[in-house]
Write a structure and sequence with these properties.
alpha/beta; 7-stranded parallel β-sheet; 4-stranded parallel β-sheet; 42% strand
Amino acid sequence: MTLDRLSGMVRTKRQTLYIGRELAGQQGAAGASFTDVDVIGPAVVYFDGCRLTDCHFEGAVDELIWDVPESRPVVRGAILLRDCTFTRCNFIDVGVAGGHDDVMRLLQAAAPV
């Protein structure tokens, strides 16, 4: 698995990240940090150990969740984001893959206060 294209990258000040284009041909990214970034799809992401603070996801919650049963050992087609930090980011046309309860907790924790 290759997680290097955005790994360790830091983006700030209302930049735009077309996540599918930036990670074309890659499995995902690890250890990247994003502040005030518009993350634009279309894409489905799988957050693993990521921290999201004061972020906004465009769309209703039931439109965002791509439910993955815990019994499924592998998820194909989703962009893996491992140990990344997102602060005050907007996610536009981006779905979130994972267990329903896990994704709900992540979306609730990410929401601006």
